[in-house]
Hints:
By secondary structure, the chain is an alpha/beta fold.
Amino acid sequence: MPNGSLRARRSAQLSAACLLAASALALSGCAKPADDPRRAAAAADGSGAATAGAPDATASASGTASPSASASPSASASASGSAAASRSASPNGTGNAPAGASTAPGGGPGAAPAGPPAGSSSGSVFTGLAFDTCTAPPLATMTAWQGTSPYGAVAVYVGGKNRGCAQPQLTASWVQSVSAAGWKLIPLYVGAQPPCQTGSSPEKITAATADSLGAADGADAVSKASALGMRAGSTLYLDVEAYNSADTACGDAVLAYTQAFDRAVASRSYRPGFYGFSSSSAAGIANAAAQGKPDLPEALWYAKYDGAADTTGSFPFGAGLFAGHRRGHQYQVNQRETYGGVALTVDRNAWDGPVGVTG
């Protein structure tokens, strides 16, 4: 990404393991903080203006995050579910680019994933490749990418005080139009961030406020998604960035906040999901699920930057956790791709889980 000073700042925060993985995969970043370099990419793409917000990521181990999705309400389902993305990139993320697509600079692991068609869906579950970018792209971009790219779903930031980019395109009309065109939407809410996380965040969790903040943010997430035309039954993914997993008090506060968020979402007939780093935030949720704790997300979307476009072999937790169409895997970030003559910088995700319900 073009923001040199931000890249240097983030590199200093990442672990040696993360930096090694980033080098091996030719990635331009290893974490996805809300002070996200994709804000600069959004400005460069002309897809929207960046705003202040979003927390810094301070991954202490692998610097990855991990979410996953499913239709079952139990966070500890024992089925082995989760399929590799349909027509996805090869396991090392080096699929051949289709006609009309440009590979990322340098080729190799940065090559664009293989082309259309873009996955399949059944009810509120989508299986295939999804992309996310800091600012929802213009409708013209979505139209150009429809049918020419390998993607069938897009994640959009519906709200949260720590949301890092402006969303001039993200309206109820936009949601209606892209949904009618066949895109599936993955709503993401950037809520309060961990108390031990370095960097500034407009909203942070404390042990004393975890329950009240979680309840308020869960209600707000439903309100924001509903206003955009995402109906009851939609899965809303809470975005919690990386933190020091050795800080147990910090992890406990994050869990309490997440549980309160989930209760608020579920009580309004929506479904809770979670996005986090496999070394910290997602690991905390997976550990809680393994222990059978209540009020957990139904789906886990994990960021693990290994270039593997799947949700099974790359899954870093117990095989029985979040199985049965309840996983998403963010496997590469900051990839410049062109389809239908329109370029966009995106993060790549393999998806086998629930999404937003529209229409």
